[in-house]
């Protein structure tokens, strides 16, 4: 039996982050983390954002477990994981493409990994 997938994304309307499970938003949060994460970008959504100049939700952190809510301490070893549809077609760390991370932290509207 396959595990259910959780799709976490930056909430462009309400701020913070949201997680969908079976197509329904099941959590909204500002600080949390998820493990064993696949970073996905919809090519069609990316193209639509670039063509129209308007951001839309088309990039997700996908995992088999729901987010764990916790206060994330600041740590200078953390690397920021970024995605900007107007600068590229995938998530990046220090300008280099990244498609999978062991753990992804969400804090203050940004994503980090170790």
Characterise this structure.
- It is a single chain.
- The chain is mainly beta.
- It has one domain.
- 9% of the residues lie in helices and 46% in strands.
- Strands 1, 2, 3, 4, 5, 6, 7, 8, 9, 10 and 11 form an eleven-stranded antiparallel sheet that branches.
- A hairpin with a 2-residue loop joins β10 (100-107) and β11 (110-113).
- The N and C termini lie far apart (31 Å).
Question: How is the topology of this model organized?
Answer:
Blueprint: E1 6-10, E2 17-21, E3 24-29, E4 32-41, H1 43-52, E5 59-63, E6 68-69, E7 79-82, E8 92-93, E9 96-97, E10 100-107, E11 110-113
Antiparallel strand pairs: 1-2, 1-5, 2-3, 4-5, 4-6, 4-10, 7-8, 7-11, 8-9, 10-11
Task: Give keywords.
114 residues; mainly beta; eleven-stranded antiparallel beta sheet; 1 helix; 11 strands; globular
Summarize the structure.
This protein is mainly beta and 114 residues long. The protein contains one helix and eleven strands; from the N terminus they run ββββαβββββββ.
Strand residues, percent: over 45%
The secondary-structure element order is: EEEEHEEEEEEE
- DSSP E strands, number: 11
Give the overall shape: globular
Mean pLDDT: 93
């Amino acid at each position: 039996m396959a595990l259910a997938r959780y799709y976490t994304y930056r909430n462009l309307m309400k701020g913070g982050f949201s997680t969908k499970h079976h197509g329904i938003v099941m959590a909204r949060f500002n600080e949390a983390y998820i493990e064993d994460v696949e970073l996905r970008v919809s090519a069609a959504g990316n193209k639509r954002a670039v063509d129209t100049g308007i951001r839309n939700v088309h990039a997700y952190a996908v995992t088999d477990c729901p987010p764990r809510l916790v206060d994330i301490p600041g740590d200078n070893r953390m690397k920021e994981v970024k995605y900007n549809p107007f600068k590229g077609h995938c998530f990046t760390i220090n300008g280099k493409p990244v498609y999978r991370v062991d753990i992804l932290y969400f804090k203050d509207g940004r994503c980090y990994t170790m």
